[in-house]
Batch of 2 targets.
Target 1
Amino acid sequence: MNQGNVTTVRPDDCKTPEPLTYNVLSWVMIGEFMLGLPLNLSVLYIFIFRFKFWKNKSIFLFNIVVADFLLVACLPFKAYHYQQGNRRSENSVVCKTMLFMLFLNRGASIAFLITLSLDRYFNVVHLGKRNFVKVLKKSPQISIVIWLLLLPLTIPTMVTTFECCNSHGREHETPAHDVTDTFREIVYFSQIVIPFIILVYCTVRIVNRLRKKTVGEKTKLRRAVCVVLSVVVVFSICFLPSTLARVALLVVRLKKWQDAENVVVQIYDSLMVLSYIDCLLDPLVYCFCNSGFKDAYVSNFCPSILQKRLLKADFGLGTTTVTTTTSGVRTVTLPILEK
């Protein structure tokens, strides 16, 4: 069974094909947890107690924070299973619960990031027209509806052992299993492909708008491009690589290339671990989307020596206006999302 350090196993058994690889990945996830937990706790603190997200029309951003906590909560358990030589928990309930939370995080992060991009697209490309996304942002109930709509897209990952591994191409597969696996893969890829097409379309339209505008208007449009590109970066790093690896994994399984499958499985799992850093990158999107959040976070958690520099820096976060009060001049930074 053992050949050197490599264990030849059927991926259906969910044993790690290379213990060293998964031991390294487990420590990577521990590092993501140690960074992600305090970061997201601090972000949550700012949103609730300092920024008051419900008053600043940042409900969608707050929902991304909630989604990231689902991911952070799973990382220690995932790391433990890798160190034990398993790609998932041997307990069916624990396994399906973790799959549900991981893919709910994935779906929620994508849904709310794309919603933010659509909002920026309508504000720039269709300025003056009724922005349905802006209307939705004012209603907290819409966020609840989005979470509920994600449930039917998340549950298929729990029907069978999605993570290790789907039964496409297996000799024991029945027609019912084949339909289930096919439906699950369609849901999995549609959650990535469709939003990515929307994201690319929004980015191209905003950039084209930027080229046609005058100098004065270009300043505001550059900020819009900055916001959308920050979403593109998160999407490209966290979601696309693992999706491409999933395609390769399906191909080698259907071809029944067992040796190649053991290698591709490791690549796929490594890229999935990489995708978990969205809980570290999402706060950058918050800063680009709303300068008020950036200012509140910097004021509360950054060293005083950096605060003045960061507060004065304009990263394309919003417009700055000057108002006069009885005590002098007060600079107020307004988010570009607001008109």
Target 2
Amino acid sequence: MKLKIYIIATLLLSSVLWGCRKDDLPVKPQPSPFSASIKAGTATLPAAGGTSSILITAGADGWWIVVPDDKKAWCSITRVYGSGDLEVPVSIKANTTGLPRTVEVAVNPTFNLPAVKLVFNQAGQ
């Protein structure tokens, strides 16, 4: 009986020690180069409204876009998250306030990289 307990204890201890050995771990993922910009010539929109685009370069990494809550009534982005390289449309509704207006949109990359702030301007009537 003591021999069985010894064998079981030895096997158990061996499996614990074997399971705790350090394996070669995969390389920690690194962020892809990230950039976001407004499509050339579309940062300022007329009072009648229109569409612009955000050009995102993210490789295989993810990103998300934040429009301030108080601007969402007139500035909308249909795709606010994704991954990879993409051109994301930005729709600006007609400006009936009579005053110029501005919205700052944040494009946030993964890997805790800093957000890219993009400013869209719209003329008043």
